[in-house]
Design goal:
The chain is an alpha/beta fold and about 450 residues long. The protein is built from 19 helices and nine strands. It folds into four domains: about 90 residues, GMP Synthetase, Chain A, domain 3 (2-Layer Sandwich), CATH 3.30.300.180; about 150 residues, P-loop containing nucleotide triphosphate hydrolases (Rossmann fold, 3-Layer(aba) Sandwich); about 70 residues, Helicase, Ruva Protein, domain 3; about 100 residues, DnaA protein, C-terminal DNA-binding domain (Chromosomal Replication Initiator Protein Dnaa, Chain: A), CATH 1.10.1750.10. It starts with a helix and ends with a helix.
């Protein structure tokens, strides 16, 4: 590799390492190899088995890394490439002079559940009727639950159906950076025109302005200019307006003067639906639905972490040339995402006893062939909790419940999972048993 090309590639790799987790870099980006740099474009060879995945998932990151390394563009090429005419991996052409939107984030791709239903409905209403439904719309929740997705979905909807309305999406980091550059260059008028001469402003992660006094002042005036002229603002944060303690009351009040919508972590059923949609989008038809269920059950932190876990399983299966089974998913993810044994009930038997006590029946009835509705449902709840709170597989759990088939345990888990995803008496019953078991575990640790 020529010294100049090697220097360029080293700079690009450094930028990529800042953007992705070490595991993702090792699996998807480390195998890439630069082959030429001509007229401001870096040509990168990608092995066949990862080329489409890199093109679909990492093209924008590659473009950004190259630009920060001083290269205008990048193209992915195959092993036989010998000149121009490569498969492109260029960043999609910006619309509306750089609205900052990712076209992959749409309302159609957003999976709705109890934890995000209000935020989704509000975002769609804002997209359909900017500045007439909710203004401002303030969406908050922990990282990785879909705040950024909803912002882009609003922007993409307005860009497509808004009859020429101007949209701009920006992270607070980008807003701050552009403002600082404008101040240094003494061209703040250009900055203000860029962010105030729009019909819809989408501002992501406002909490990062906490210690930036001048930028908060600028945001305050930008907010007023847009709001008073009847323009739409949508703002996201990892906490509610009242919890943004480093912000002045006047900004907090403005954030609260429209609709505040919270996102909460997805339930197991929603996580499963998210993974099903993800594999359809990526054409991963060889992943069994049972594997997706296993990933959804193990990983509950955020949508971003959930999708990362799926990538980890797919990558590992490809590397070791094994089918992506539920057992392989447990092997890959178990130690990373599984709750520690100290937080788990001591045995399936104790789960059976606690469930029986809740339903007013004997624990032995759960193991018998009694099919009366009360006992049958109690048995399903116990099976569900045993699968959620122990490390035992389906066949082992079946044996613990009177020698039943593993498919019986899976059916029980699915049925109760659907019930606990909805408010009601049955969910409260399951939660009551779970809390009792957790208290017992905490007491045991305290002794």
């Amino acid at each position: 590799m020529p010294d100049e090309l090697e220097t360029i590639w080293d700079a690009v790799r450094r930028e990529l390492r800042r953007d992705v987790a070490d595991f993702s870099f090792h699996i998807w980006l480390d195998p890439l190899e630069p082959v030429a740099c001509e007229q401001g474009t870096l040509y990168v060879r990608a092995p066949e088995h990862i080329r489409s995945w890199v093109r679909d998932r990492y093209a924008t990151l590659l473009v950004g890394a190259c630009r920060r390394a001083g290269i205008a563009g990048v193209e992915l090429v195959d092993e036989a490439w010998a000149g121009a005419g490569a498969v492109t991996a260029r960043e999609p052409r910006d619309r509306a002079e750089g609205d900052g939107l990712n076209p992959k984030y749409t309302f159609e791709q957003f999976v709705i559940g109890d934890g995000n239903r209000l935020a989704h409905a509000a975002a769609l209403a804002v997209a359909e009727l900017p500045a007439q439904a909710w203004n401002p719309l303030f969406i908050h929740g922990p990282p990785g639950l879909g705040k950024t997705h909803l912002l882009h979905a609003i922007g993409n909807y307005v860009s497509r159906y808004g009859h020429g309305l101007r949209v701009r999406y920006a992270t607070v980091e980008a807003f701050t950076s552009e403002f600082v550059q404008a101040v240094r260059g003494r061209n703040t008028d250009v900055f203000r025109e860029r962010f105030r001469d729009v019909d819809v402003l989408l501002l992501d992660d406002v909490q990062f302005l906490a210690d930036k006094v001048r930028t908060k002042e600028e945001l305050f005036h930008t907010f007023n200019a847009l709001y008073e002229s009847g323009r739409q603002l949508v703002i996201t944060s990892d906490r509610s307006p009242v919890d943004l303690e480093a912000f002045e009351a006047r900004l907090q009040e403005r954030f609260e003067c429209g609709l505040v919508a919270e996102l909460s972590p997805p339930t197991a059923g929603v996580r499963h639906a998210i993974l099903r949609k993800r594999v359809r989008q990526d054409g991963l038809d060889d992943i069994p639905d049972e594997t997706l269920e296993a990933v959804a059950r193990l990983v509950g932190a955020s949508v971003r972490v959930l999708e990362g876990a799926l990538i980890r399983v797919v990558a590992y299966a490809s590397l070791v040339d094994k089918p992506p089974t539920p057992e392989l998913a447990m092997e890959v993810l178990g130690r990373l995402y599984r709750r520690g044994n100290s937080e788990r009930p001591s045995s399936v038997r104790r789960i059976q006893e606690a469930t029986a006590e809740e339903f007013g029946i004997s624990a032995d009835a759960l193991l018998a062939r009694d099919r009366t509705p009360k006992v049958a449902f109690a048995r399903q709840v116990a099976m569900y909790l045993a699968r959620e709170l122990t490390d035992q597989g389906l066949p082992a759990l079946g044996r613990e419940f009177g020698g039943r088939n593993h498919s019986t345990v899976l059916h029980a888990w699915k049925r109760v999972s659907e019930l606990v995803d909805k408010p009601g008496e049955k969910r409260e019953t399951v939660d009551s048993i779970r809390r009792r078991l957790e208290r017992e575990t905490a007491d045991d640790r305290a002794r």
